[in-house]
Predict the structure.
Amino acid sequence: MGRIALLLGGFLLLATPAQAGLMDLLESIESPLQESPELPPLPDEPGEGKNWVGTEIPKPDLPILVLAGHADSQRMAGSGTPGRAVGIGGARPMQPGITDELFWNLLTAKAVVAEGQRQGLKMRFYDPGVRTIRDSDDPRTNWSVGREHVSNGGYAVEIHYDAYSPHGIGPGIIPAVLYGFSVMDEALAEEFGAYPYDYRGMLGGPRRGVAMLEIGQLEGALERGLRNPSTRQQTLQTIARRVVRALRQGMVLANSPVGGTTLLKGSITEPVLGPGEDVSE
């Protein structure tokens, strides 16, 4: 009986919380937690213009993820610009309940994906479908889905339009910062211009690996082209071709045996913008 009691006591000892904690510790040693990559330090002085070079290459077998900026942040801070027509001119919003920027972000992002797929690029569009998500780390947000996509070696870009003068700056790519600067951002910078990587102290999207492309300020000829039903489709198509042309150039850089620091101008000849199709302000 004494030996049985001793064995039983040993069995109960193995089942104690202390032993369970030891097993968890041993398992954690065998399977260490994956560390998140570190962000680059902010410069001593705020950056002005392009202060980065895109050399990181995304996996070619993963699709390019295209997002519409502010799709999950309506009716809260950071919902996007109303555009000059609404903000200054008193025009009616394109759609009640959302800013004009989101309205155009959605249409532009979808046009980019449609054009990219037509040209053979592996692209997809994501829309959270919920217009107000206050927790930026909610798994449904653009940034959460974008970060997951980029963590697997893909490329994610969020479409935006900048605020009208004097509040906005103009077109350009705000590069993704997490996981390094991408050749895809380098190519978009050649087409649209570039912001410093530390713009506004490094924005939430770039901190999560999501690039942010500002198409242009939502005013003037660009806004009129979008708002006019007779020119809307042509304007969207022109923008989509410019974005896709840059992304295709990025794929050329990604597949080049030479490092992704020099743009291979002239490597892609189609499609090109026709006369009078430049929508830059």
